[in-house]
Amino acid sequence: MIATLGGGSNFFQETSPPAGVNLYSVTAIAGSLLAPSSECSLSVPPAAAVGLTCSSPAEFTAQLDWALLGGDTAIAIHRNGAQVASLPGGTTTFTDTAAPGGIQTYEVIIEASGVFSDPVTCLVNVQVPAAPVITAAVDFSTIELGNTVQFSATSDVAGVTWSWTFGDGETSNEQNPQHLYSTAGVFTASVTATGQGGISNLVEVTVNVLQPVFLRSDNNGDGTIDISDPIQALEYLFGSGLSSCESAMDFNDDGVVDLSDVVNVLTFIFEGTVTPAAPYPACGTDPTADALTCTSQSTCP
User: For the domain that residue 54 is a member of, what is the CATH number?
Assistant: First the structure.
């Protein structure tokens, strides 16, 4: 019993009802006689949290603190409209260690036996790591066609992913990739890294890929065309299969080294009725793109 009223009373006001669902009954009394009771239930919301403060003490972390006015049985924490925690009654702090970076909206809602208070809201700018800062380099900025280029990169933070483009349509996700250019030219390679704090600065490096310089039919690269050159070609075709400049042995510049090139260079030496294809009679680059390899001859300026 919470109150006894005088006869004729037709209302009662409880000024501090407990939070939650309360069941009330009213019984009329006449002397020693009791009328049947009338009952009703009333849901009383608990008092909202007070003094809510929110901060971000570390990366991807939000800290919430508040005070309670009593009557609570549980506390719900919402982030951006979705519940992220259910805490026991009496709790006055919560640390969200999986908070997304940037501005986040938090709500603290007090529960008393299934009845909820109005939410108390705060905004938190959750810390994120800084974007990585990177540097990049290439082992040789000028290189002859047919040689592999070694790229390298460093980041001031660990755990990043890499994205290279080499300027010729090719890409790599390695930190320190190697790349072989298929044509001569000046290429700009670029790289970025992505970490928890976002995308890094863009770094570019330039690679100048040069055509090798050689003298056609100077098969051994000694600076003259003589009988040693067809012998070198025969050794290549039927012996070691090795040459520092296959293009020099391709007498007619058809993209293939075969016996016709040996016959042609012998004819040139002993009869002079045929002439090597360019570059001849001076050193130069191959005017025709093909699959033959070559390293510049040391006798060519």
Answer: 2.60.40.10
> 221 and 292 in one domain?
yes
- Total number of domains in the chain: 4
Q: Which residues, 6 or more positions from 153, have their beta carbon under 8 angstroms from its beta carbon?
A: 134, 135, 136, 137, 162, 164, 175, 176, 191, 193, 203
User: pLDDT of 53-112, one tens digit each?
Assistant: 999 999 999 999 999 998 899 999 999 999 999 999 999 999 999 999 999 999 999 999
In which domain, by residue range, is 17 found? 1-44
Residue type, 182: S
User: Is the pTM higher than 0.90?
Assistant: no
Query: In terms of domains, do 106 and 164 share one?
Result: no
Mean of the pLDDT values across residues 204-219?
96
Residue 9 has pLDDT above 90, yes or no: no
What is the Cα–Cα distance from 42 to 14, expressed in whole angstroms?
11
pLDDT at residue 213, as a whole number = 96
Q: Do both 181 and 229 map to the same domain?
A: no
Q: Write the DSSP assignment of 56-117 as a string of letters.
A: EEEBTEEEEEEE--S--SEEEEEETTEEEEEEETT--EEEETTPPSEEEEEEEEEEETTEEP
Q: Are residues 270 and 297 in the same domain?
A: yes
